Amino acid sequence: MFNKLLYVCFLFLPFGFTYAEIDLDLGEEINELCAGCHGEYGEGGKKGEYPRLAGLPAAYIIQQLNLFKQEKRKNMPMRPYANEREMPEQDIPSVAAFLSQIKLSTKMPVFDDTVSAYDKLLIAKKVFNIARVEGDIELGEELYIDDCQLCHGKQGMGKDDSDTPPLTGQYTQYMIKQINDFASGERWHEYAEALFSEMEADEIQAIMAYLSTMDD
Ligand code: HEC
Ligand code: HEC
Question: Which ligand is nearest to the CA of 26?
């Protein structure tokens, strides 16, 4: 009976994630493993060696974890965390949902006297703003609008509930590495050849400079 039930669940799986149980507590528990690199609140770390995961669309996180799992996106540090034993397929929607609902603010709020020092510290841990990057912001804006905006959005926020990630609020170093991986074919990106293979370092830098103004 139980087997039959499972079979029915798997049958429905391709039609959406509605049938995979989303358990935020389980997601939080799994995230303790991820936190060593990606931070307690998915804020990432080491200046972007570990990307930010907080607030990324759940559908994007699910897709990327599956790509790591299938080794279509190759990365040594992620490898042990995306295999079937550590990350069974049915757990993926829960950890993705947990990370996706974390909201980091870009500015420290103004506190009144009633807020304790401890609470201030906790709130400060969730404040995250990409440092301004050197580069030609105007050129970056032009390139961004011409080549990236259609998919990544006017504010660089990607598309909710889709496989298109935000670029605003992601680490500069991390994104430069990804763009180089797109250009070399190490990682897949739509139209990578046309978009990235002839992009000069100062053009990438300019786009990064523009994006770094977007979350201020
Ligand atoms: C040992 C360090 C480490 C641990 C632990 C780790 N990761 Fe990662 N993760 C990385 C690195 C490094 C990258 C960037 C890979 C690259 O450069 O392409 C990454 C990338 C990702 C991405 C892609 C983000 C994006 O914007 O495309 C996701 C999603 C992700 N990790 C989820 C997780 C989850 C969920 C866990 C816990 C189950 C986890 N990671 C544990 C190191 C780690
Ligand atoms: C046709 C739509 C489209 C266009 C145009 C586009 N992107 Fe993307 N981009 C995507 C999608 C979808 C992904 C996720 C790729 C995947 O499936 O792994 C992505 C991923 C990325 C990532 C990785 C983000 C992360 O968290 O790992 C970066 C960086 C990026 N794009 C930069 C750019 C830049 C810069 C431009 C303009 C020069 C651009 N993209 C144009 C759709 C697009």
Answer: 1
Q: How many CA atoms lie within 13 A of 15 on its CB side?
A: 7
How many angstroms does the Cα of residue 51 sit away from the middle of ligand 1? 7
3-state DSSP call for residue 193? helix
- Kindly state the average pLDDT of the residues 212-216: 93
Amino acid letter, 137: I
- Angle of CA points 44, 202, 204, to nearest 5°: 40
- Per the DSSP assignment, residues forming a β-bridge with 105 are 127
Domains parsed from the chain with CATH numbers = 2-100 (1.10.760.10), 137-214 (1.10.760.10)
Q: pTM above the 0.85 mark?
A: yes
Tell which residue, 126, 213, 135, 201, has the closest CA to residue 169: 213
Q: Which two tokens stand for residue 112?
A: 């009144």
Show Cβ contacts of residue 81 under 8 Å, excluding neighbours closer than 6 positions. Answer: 33, 34, 68, 87
Q: Which residues pair with 45 in a beta bridge?
A: 50
Pocket of ligand 1 contains residue 34 by CB under 6 Å = yes
Cα 210 to Cα 190: distance, rounded to the nearest angstrom: 22
* pLDDT, tens only, 78-98: 998 998 888 999 999 999 999
